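A.,

Following up on our hallway conversation. Structure tokens first:
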């Protein structure tokens, strides 16, 4: 593990209670409390080809309607992405990505200025444009290992940073937790070397990204081991293909399975949940939070 930054914003000891309050530093000097209650991140895909909701939010007007509904249902953050990350999706370049993203981002920020917005991108140029337009978080599905300049940008702007694990385009270790530690430790090193503060960082184990169903199930079963990395954890299981492997359902029918993983992973200490169906997952999270709170009252 890389050294922690101590006075530069350390979130605490590496084995800290994941349900204890800690502040996540976002852009524009804002902070978000993580730990005592799970928070929902509403997915807003500005793509024609995402596996679940491709084409639903291409216009700013449609995106604002979707975003407003998700916030009303309980989303604390909106995550906007303009390039599909599903397996086999056609790649686009940064110019295309920004052409899709920016009109929607600007419209959502104007309609919901109080709601933090995350931009789902692995390109520093796109991330910069989004932060300048009011986004407060960068969600990098390559964990800074595709474009390390994102780390410099986040250090410069003080934005929140989500570092995701992926198994794409590399050899992976047989043990899923060891592979998480190896990849994410390298990403953390890149971030800290660029001047990113610990308090800006959230980690995402990347459910479904170059992982087979057994790997995803093992990652859920051993999820609590990831707290040794010392950072808050976000999870994105929503409608993923591995849920269909276990339930036999297509993407649009996987919301119940998603909610089940939300409850299970909240009990294991996850702080943030990236979801498509906010209302259903809000109910699952409410029950999980009640159980967690009762356990703490009883001294568990």
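Then the amino acids I'd put at each of the 300 positions:
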């Amino acid at each position: 593990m890389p050294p922690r930054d101590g006075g530069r914003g350390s979130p605490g000891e590496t084995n800290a209670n994941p349900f204890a309050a800690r502040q996540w530093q976002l852009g524009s000097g804002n902070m978000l409390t993580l730990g005592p209650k799970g928070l929902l991140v509403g997915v807003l895909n500005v793509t024609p080809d995402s596996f679940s909701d491709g084409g639903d939010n291409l216009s700013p007007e449609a995106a604002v309607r979707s975003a407003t509904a998700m916030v009303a249902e309980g989303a604390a953050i909106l995550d906007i992405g303009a390039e599909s990350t599903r397996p086999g999706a056609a790649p686009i370049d940064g110019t295309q990505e920004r052409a899709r993203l920016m009109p929607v981002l600007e419209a959502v920020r104007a309609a919901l200025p109080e709601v933090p917005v995350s931009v789902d991108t692995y390109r520093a140029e796109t991330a910069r444009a989004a932060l300048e337009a009011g986004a407060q978080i960068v969600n990098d599905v390559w964990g800074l290992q595709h474009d390390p300049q994102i780390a410099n940008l986040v250090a410069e702007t003080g934005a929140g940073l989500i570092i995701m694990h992926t198994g794409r385009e590399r050899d992976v270790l047989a043990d899923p937790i060891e592979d998480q530690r190896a990849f994410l430790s390298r990403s953390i090193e890149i971030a800290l070397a660029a001047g990113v503060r610990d308090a800006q960082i959230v980690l995402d184990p990347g459910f479904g990204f170059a992982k087979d169903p057994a790997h995803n199930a093992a990652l859920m079963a051993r999820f609590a081991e990831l707290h040794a990395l010392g950072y808050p954890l976000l999870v994105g299981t929503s409608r993923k293909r591995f849920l269909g492997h276990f339930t036999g359902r297509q993407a649009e029918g996987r919301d119940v399975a998603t909610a089940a993983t939300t409850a299970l992973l909240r009990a294991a200490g996850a702080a943030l949940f990236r979801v498509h169906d906010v209302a259903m997952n809000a109910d699952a999270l409410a029950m999980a939070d009640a159980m967690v709170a009762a356990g703490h009252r009883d001294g568990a």
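The chain has a mean pLDDT of 91. Curious whether your intuition agrees with the design.

B.
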